[in-house]
Amino acid sequence: MGSLRIYPSFFASILILILICFHSSSCEDSGHEDFDYSEGPKGPHNWGDLKQAWRLCKTGTNQSPINISPHKVRKDDSLERLRTGYSPIHDPVLLSIDHDVALEFGADAGGITLNGTHYKLKEYHTHMPSEHVVNRRRFPLEIHLVHKTPDKNRIAVISVLYKHGRRDNILEQVLKMISSANKKGGSLDSSLNMTKMKISGKAYYRYSGSLTTPPCSEGVLWTVLREAHTLSQEQFRKFQTILTKNNSRFTQKINGREVLYRR
Ligand SMILES: [Zn+2]
To answer: Of 38, 57, 206, 256, whose CB neighbour count within 10 A is largest?
Structure first.
């Protein structure tokens, strides 16, 4: 276990537990105790057998993550330019710091319009190492920005891959938030300036996939930014300290799906 841990008060613990249990559609579904990333019985190869509601993890044909082969993608000029309308987020809720670092946002986080549908930004969480790979190359970190339509029926995730390089401003804010939560006992009374997230106008890959954790629901609209962002060695080490275990699902079969590309 990592040396940097959250020790929330009893009531904060209950609150976080309730939020995890009722948090219905992101990668943090169903509680962390029910599955893991090991080679054992609760690991990714067995998720589909653990619960009937999770069978798609085994039988699904449009699953995520995938390996993206840039020479096989189809350039599609009809795909829209990415234009986020995020707001600075006040008082995000820390959902977990076990498999991943996951922050849930309230109604004021803004959103993005994709394929003519407006999605609200609901959650930010981490995977280490990356789940999506490009040309079989895995990245040290991947961030998922989970968006949902107001009726919560449709999910769109923006994936940002991180490679080693310069320090990242948003990651720095997240790390600071976590360390202050550690000291203050779980309360996240800081804000996160998502307007600084460099997504608008960027080239991206688009495909139809699934949640990458149980219940592995399909119909998720994936947008993977082509260009990786960077994180510093210091930031990498801090995340390594927090996320002591791998939380990446293995890549899934493409099964004839087309990956589109917008320059
Ligand atoms: Zn995820």
So the answer is: 57
Instruction: Flag whether 4 is in a domain.
Output: no
Average pLDDT per run of 10 along the chain, which is 263 residues long?
40 41 40 82 96 97 97 94 89 73 85 93 94 97 96 95 96 85 56 88 97 97 98 95 89 97 95
213 DSSP 8-state letter:
S
User: Ligand 1 centroid vs 227 CA: distance in angstroms?
Assistant: 18
Residue 1 counted as domain residue: no
Total domains, the chain: 1
- CATH code, domain carrying 221: 3.10.200.10
Q: Which of 23, 71, 90, 99 is catalytic?
A: 99
Tell me the pTM: 0.85
Identify whether 144 is a catalytic site residue. Answer: no
> Could you tell me if residue 72 is inside a domain?
yes
Contacts of 53 (CB under 8 A, 6+ apart): 214, 215
Kindly give, in sequence order, each residue whose CB lies less than 8 Å from that of residue 25, ignoring residues fewer than 6 positions away.
146, 148, 152, 155, 211, 217
Residues with CB under 5 A from ligand 1 (ion): 27, 144
User: Which structural domain, as residue segments, surrounds residue 251?
Assistant: 10-262
